[in-house]
Amino acid sequence: VRLANTKTNKSSTIYGPESYVVSLTTNCSGKGILSGHADGTIVRYFFDDEGSGESQRDPQEHEFTTAVASPGGQSVVLGSYDRLRVFNWRPHRSIWEEAEPKEIANLYTITALAWKRDGSRLCVGTLCGGVELFDCYLRRIIYKNKFELTYVGPSQVIVKNLSSGTRVVLKSHYGYEVEEVKILGKERYLVAQTSDTLLLGDLNTNRLSEIAWQGSGGNEKYFFENENVCMIFNAGELTLVEYGNNDTLGSVRTEFMNPHLISVRINERYQRGTEDNKKLAYLIDIKTIAI
Predict the structure, then answer these.
(1) Which label site among 1, 224, 236, 266 has the fewest CB atoms less than 10 Å from its CB?
(2) pTM to 2 decimals?
(3) Do 267 and 253 meet the contact criterion of CB atoms below 8 Å apart?
(4) What is the pLDDT of residues 222-252, one digit of tens each?
(5) What domains sit in the chain, N to C, each tagged with a CATH number?
């Protein structure tokens, strides 16, 4: 396996396995390589200061003919003869785990693999001209008989409205595992937590946000009276998150948390000399209003 540098117009050898390469894929960041070889060996290589790799071989396996990584980069599928092998990344353990191989009799040699962009389906092409389509998900939940939640990966969930058919892809851009998805605010807004972030979304406008957040045991209270901003109240602190923005709009201390006593305005009036005109009015105490 060789590396070509287009800037220096030079090439170098990364590693030299004993059998020739029949399939090759990289992760999303381009810092890791998976290669399949004619003798059934899979080599995993990382680009770091020194370079490291791992190899695995099954004597009963035929040669690997194609490989593809999922859109989220957390699953890799390798195709061979009558068989698909799936490797999943486990962020909590920082290891790749192999799932149960998918055996398909008379499928013959797999020549092409392609994921759907949202990661929910995998298309398989064979040497004999066959095309197989597989649903790919960790689990699927029907929420209140109105929504379908499909966990296509640890950090990605597809939310589908069963009545209208509209879909929203909720994804942690940091690769954190999505623990639970809630649909609140008259079944319009999405709320989900990971170990280090909070995900929010508006199903009507498809505006999604992910902010840094340390959980407090589920004691947060969410208010959705404003269509542009989610108000989160926890332990005397009010946090504002604008839908579609991955940074908090602001945080203030107040003991008077009532959406009818708080006013938030997002670019509702043009102000000369400034691009954004975002204002918050809230109570410091019974007689004092802060803006």
Answers:
(1) 236
(2) 0.69
(3) no
(4) 888 888 888 888 888 888 888 998 988 888 8
(5) 2-135 (2.130.10.10), 139-290 (2.40.128)
